[in-house]
Write a structure and sequence with these properties.
The complex is a heterotrimer of chains A (366), B (360) and C (346). Chain A has 366 residues and is an alpha/beta fold. Chain A is 34% helix and 20% strand. In chain A, the strands form 2 sheets. Chain A has an 8-stranded mixed sheet, sandwiched between helices. Chain B folds into 2 domains: 2-7 and 20-246, Rossmann fold (3-Layer(aba) Sandwich), CATH 3.40.50; 263-359, no CATH class. Chain B has helices spanning 14-22, 77-84, 107-116, 134-144, 154-164, 181-193, 211-228, 239-245, 263-268, 273-281, 323-327, 355-359, and strands spanning 27-40, 46-61, 66-70, 92-97, 100-101, 117-120, 199-203, 231-236, 248-253, 256-262. In chain B, a hairpin with a 2-residue loop joins β4 and β5 (100-101). In chain B, α6 (181-193) packs parallel to α7. The N and C termini of chain B lie far apart (50 Å). Classes of the chains: A alpha/beta (366), B alpha/beta (360), C mainly alpha (346). The A-C interface holds A 49, 51-52, 97, 302-312, 314-315, 317-319, 323-325, 327-333, 338-341, 366 and C 1, 4, 7-8, 11-12, 15-16, 18-20, 22-23, 25, 28-29, 31-33, 35-36, 39-40, 42-46, 48, 65, 346.
Chain lengths: 366, 360, 346
């Protein structure tokens, strides 16, 4: 717990601008789960959807873990399965059509092996989640105070009056101005950024150990995004919760995450500390993403995008799922792996870094 | 590929001849306003106010130039695009295209304008008619403007256009739902190109696309500009994307342009507090630059465009605001910072960290 | 290995080339660049569906899997054939060849449906009744759609006061129940004179009159459906794109809006055929629809009701046949709705 708190990233405070990124990285490195005890572990998670037509393999053997106070980002483009893995943790996938296997361990106990009632006790006080679209996640016919308070009534049996008081406190905590006056307002009376704060207040109501934020700022403007990300970081520092941030935005990952797992076609293709992954990507997909984005600080030259588009999860290519778009893909002569046929395992390529590419070393050293 | 851009004979008016001789910009917007009435009642509607979506915008687009228009949601940038392609009529102000005012155009003049100024939409899923094939979508404009493409050889041209935007020409018979988002956006670009336009208004053309696909589409737009001499008005909320593609950038807030200049001016030397706050909010992509920039967190929400603040519209959220800001509307001009900015206290303040800056 | 080879090389010819000549970094850069202009055409990774299908093609594939569609479709087809070629189903009997000695005979092996009060073969009578029912059902639906689509499209597309006016007119008609309105029109209509002349069709009390009555009092739902569809589609980007190209209102309505609005209208029409057939039977039963000696299930039910105790088959058989027809169309419409509604597709 102690090392992880110090690992919380001091973004945004101008006073910190003097610290070099090296000490920053060192502080982050201590937050890796090797030192801290993970509170949530996902192991070989698989989710497939069996509907009419082809089976959709949304998550294909994903493992990650999160320690208290740590921020782990899951980075990926749309349709890579990043949200589905979180939905599996939260138990909000309908089974069927979803078929879930693997293990989701919260404080060492496998949630997938528990009964529904035990799972429910973890969701809320143990793990909670915020979504991209706060407007549709809030019920339009109840006041926000009622909806925040409901968390206490449902899980703790708090009285109506007490719940309302707690709702006001929480709204203060997520920095909603004039919380006491606004507690009886309805969701449509709030702006997008304020609604997202209401969502965060609901998610934090029961002091979760892990908060999953699924594209929390994608629908928000950039100035509001900065406020919400700052709020999340501050709340994390205060509570010591683990934060899983699911996003497609490389900038957001760089600003707030200690570690990052890059997902492609339902698999983690690269994982490591944010600094390492961003400065020297070990997977061609990660590198492709980096060279696809225009920079704010420089007009830059021609962009270098990845060819093609991500595959459908119902028709993932054989071998390495990225090989059709990969500039490094090989046919594997002389006993070397064939990208079109051999599935690359997610293996340690440098200490603390794992990549699912047969030729990661070439990318790192070549 | 050369025949993609053959231009038909067109009538030249006096104003246009004068424009051709003058070397004035392709498009000049002056004092553009669009107010939408706020109405109450179901049967007998009563106007109770106006939403000032666009409230006095000046903007120019030169020949073969890309002009960026950047702002947050609700700032009126999409309304500007609709006014430009004549989907909406301005409340006041002028849109002067090749020397002629678009808001006074009717009939065949308007039709000719609509051919020359095309639009690319944000959502590749809703901007293509699901009941039409890719080829029909591309060819649709020729039914309205038969003179653009002779009836004979249209199939050939559809194939050329699809090829030009990087799609397999054999896909002409496929329906939109059979394409990915990036491919659909290419069909939308081909539809615009089919009219051999001079200016393309791009309304958030890449914001619905994945990062890797977004870069493909931006490169395509750049290639097309280079090959065909197109002008773009590029509207987006993503500041990095706008900087990358634009020669000049305009920053919009609550229906007005607050700062304008080259990309180096606006991004490297922002002088309006809003621009500074906006730029400082963008997360940087390099670990080395993290935390290097000056973070300016704005408080409060954007005021309602139905009831904008007096004087400077940004003053309610501005840390520099003084009494004068509530009284005098700051005009968009150079106050010594090197490029026009609509702030009484405009001053250059670098907020975007650069690799050189952080090294020193 | 060998079975994967053709797949990979067919999709990405680049790959097989690379295996022989590993790329140097410079070349790699160039190919990534090259991919930006023709990129999507080259590695065709996201094209999983190679066939050229339209939305209707997809709907048909979906429809084929639904048993309700087949049951409904077969029922509808059987009754449609019955309406066109009644002799095929009448078992050689002539509905006009009656003998009072057979009056009210119950069903038997030779005469499956027995005889009616006049001693006519009831099977032939019921079979010949299909023609009027379906004729009225289909004509009325065509009328309802014609009126509903035109008024709905105009109201939705032009909006403003045009929409307000047309919506209020629809409200007025909504206030009159279908059966009541048609009943009044069919009762009063034949006696009405315009410039001293009887109104054509209405005065004849035939299938045409009933179809017109049902159209006049039944178009509002179709109108509202089309109106709401048109309003939704009108604001879509592809309509804006067409307007920006300079397309006129007529072209936008016929090429862009109506083709996309047609799916729910088609569903509604299919279900409504059934409903209108039932309405015709009701009007006829009430005595304002078809008159003797026409063949109609409504007339047969009406005639049979007094004999329900002695000869129940006279009511039960036409009722069952009527129900099956109505059900056939409703089932087909339901299946069609499921197939055309993308939200219900997973």
């Amino acid at each position: 717990m102690t090392p992880s708190t110090s690992g919380a990233h001091p973004a945004g405070t101008p006073a910190d601008s003097g610290t070099t990124s090296r000490t920053d990285a060192a502080a982050r490195a201590t937050a890796t789960p090797d030192t801290g005890v993970p509170v949530l572990e996902v192991e070989d998670l698989r989710v497939e959807f069996r509907t009419r037509g082809p089976v959709v393999n949304a998550v294909n053997g994903v493992s990650y873990s999160i320690a208290p106070g740590e921020t782990m980002a899951i980075l990926g483009e749309s349709g890579c399965g990043k949200s589905v893995s979180a939905q599996a943790i939260m138990g909000i996938l309908d089974t069927p059509p979803a078929v879930i296997s693997g293990a989701i361990r919260f404080e060492g106990r496998d949630m997938l092996a528990m009964g529904a009632e035990d799972q429910r006790k973890i969701r809320g006080p143990g793990v909670s989640m915020i979504f991209q679209d706060a407007l549709s996640a809030l019920n339009p016919v109840y006041s926000v105070g009622y909806q925040i308070g409901e968390m206490f009534r449902a899980h703790r049996g708090t009285s109506k009056k007490e719940a309302r008081e707690r709702a006001v406190e929480l709204m203060d905590r997520v920095r909603i101005p004039a919380a006491r006056q606004r507690v009886d307002d309805y969701p449509h009376q709030f702006s997008g950024g304020m609604r997202q704060r209401v969502m965060i207040a609901m998610a934090l109501a029961l002091d979760p150990k892990v908060l999953i934020a699924d594209e929390p700022t994608t629908a928000l403007d950039v100035t509001v995004q900065a406020q919400v990300m700052d709020l999340l970081k501050d709340l994390q520092r205060d509570t010591g919760m683990g934060l899983i941030l699911i996003t497609h935005d490389l900038g957001v990952v760089n600003e707030v995450a200690d570690r990052v797992s890059v997902m492609y076609a339902g698999k983690v293709v690269e994982t490591g500390t944010t600094d390492d992954v961003f400065t020297r990507p070990a997977h061609p997909y990660t590198r492709g993403l980096m060279s696809s984005i225009p920079l704010l600080e420089d007009k830059g030259h021609r962009l270098n995008p990845i060819v093609g588009a991500p595959p459908s999860l119902a028709a993932i290519p054989p071998g390495c799922s990225f090989h059709l778009r990969c500039p490094m893909a090989r046919r594997g002569a002389d006993g070397r792996p064939d990208c079109a046929a051999d599935v690359p395992p997610l293996r340690e390529v440098v200490v603390g870094r794992r990549s699912a590419c047969h030729y990661s070393e070439e990318l790192l050293h070549g | 590929m050369a025949d993609v851009q053959t231009r038909p004979e067109r009538r030249t008016s006096e104003a246009r001849r004068a424009w051709e001789a003058s070397g004035d910009p392709l498009l000049e917007i002056r004092g553009l306003q669009k107010h939408f009435p706020l109405q109450q009642g179901i049967v007998f509607k009563k106007t109770v106010g106006h939403v000032r979506a666009v409230d006095g915008v000046d903007l120019t687009v030169g020949r073969a130039e890309t002009v960026g228009l950047v702002g947050e949601s609700g700032c009126g940038k999409s309304t500007v695009s609709k006014l430009l392609v004549a989907l909406e009529r301005p409340t006041a102000g002028e849109i002067v295209y090749k020397g002629e005012d678009v808001s006074r155009m009717r009939g065949s003049a308007l039709k000719a304008y609509r051919r020359e100024v095309q639009m690319i939409f944000q959502d590749p899923y809703s901007s293509l008619n699901p009941r039409m094939t890719a080829g029909d979508i591309v060819a649709e404009g020729w039914a309205v403007h038969p003179d653009v493409a002779p009836r004979k050889g249209r199939d050939r041209r559809i194939r050329d256009l699809l090829d030009r935007v990087g799609l397999n020409a054999d896909y002409a018979n496929r329906y939109p739902h059979q394409f990915s988002g990036g491919q659909r956006q290419r069909i939308g670009i081909a539809r615009a190109l089919a009219m051999s336009p001079e200016l393309i208004v791009c309304d958030e053309p890449v914001s619905a696309l994945d990062v890797s696909v977004q870069a493909q589409v931006m490169n395509l737009l750049e290639d097309l500009q280079k090959d065909l001499g197109l002008s773009y008005l590029f509207i987006a909320h993503d500041l990095s994307v706008v900087r990358h593609i634009s020669h000049r950038v305009n920053v919009m807030y609550l229906g007005r342009i607050v700062e304008t200049g080259t990309d180096g001016d606006v991004y490297g030397h922002p002088s309006h507090p809003y621009t500074q706050a906006l730029l400082s909010s963008v997360p940087v992509h390099e670990p080395a630059l993290r935390g290097k920039g000056d973070r300016i967190l704005l408080t409060g929400d954007v005021p309602s465009p139905a009831n904008p603040p007096s004087g400077c519209r940004f003053r309610t959220r501005c840390w520099k605001a003084q009494d004068v800001c509530a009284e005098q509307d700051p005009e968009l001009r150079d106050r010594g910072q090197g490029h026009p900015s609509a702030c009484h206290f405009a001053e250059d303040h670098q907020v975007v960290p650069t690799v050189e800056g952080s090294a020193g | 290995m060998s079975d994967r080879d053709p797949v990979a090389s067919a999709v990405d010819p680049k790959l097989s080339r690379d295996s022989r000549h590993p790329r140097d970094p410079e070349q790699r850069h160039d190919e990534v660049e090259a991919g930006t202009t023709t990129g999507l055409a080259a590695p065709d990774v996201d094209q999983t569906d190679g066939s050229q299908t339209s939305l209707w093609g997809d709907a048909w594939r979906e429809l084929r899997r639904r048993p309700f569609f087949w049951i409904g479709g077969v029922l509808a087809l059987v009754f449609l054939t019955m309406a066109v070629f009644p002799a095929l189903f009448a078992g050689g009997a002539d509905p006009r060849a009656c003998s009072l000695s057979n009056s009210n005979l119950p069903p038997s092996a030779e005469h499956l449906f027995g005889y009616d009060q006049q001693g006519c073969d009831y099977r032939a009578t019921v079979v010949y009744g299909a023609r009027n029912s379906l004729l009225i059902g289909f004509t009325a639906v065509v009328g309802v759609l014609a009126v509903g689509v035109v008024i709905g499209a105009v109201a939705g597309y032009f909006g403003g006061w045009v929409d307000s006016l047309l919506a209020r007119i629809a409200d007025v008609f909504y206030a009159l129940p279908l059966i009541l309105g048609a009943l009044v029109l069919l009762r009063v209509g034949p006696e009405m004179r315009v410039f001293g002349q009887p109104i054509p069709i209405i005065s004849e009390r035939g299938p045409g009159a009933i179809a017109i009555a049902l159209t006049i009092f039944g178009w509002m739902t179709a109108m509202r459906l089309v109106r709401s569809q048109v309003i939704a589609i009108k604001s879509s980007d592809y309509v804006a794109a067409a307007r920006a190209l300079g397309a006129g209102s007529f072209r936008i309505l016929t090429r862009h809006i109506l083709p996309n609005a047609v799916a729910p209208v088609l569903v509604y029409a299919t279900i409504t055929v059934g409903a209108l057939i039932a309405a015709e039977a009701a009007l006829t039963y009430l005595g304002v629809g078809l008159q003797q000696p026409a063949f109609s299930w409504g007339l047969q039910i009406s005639a049979g009701q007094n004999l329900l105790r002695t000869a129940p088959h006279l009511v039960l058989i036409p009722s069952a046949v009527l129900s099956l027809t109505v059900m056939g169309f409703i089932m087909m419409g339901d299946a069609l709705r499921d197939a055309l509604d993308p939200r219900q597709r997973s």
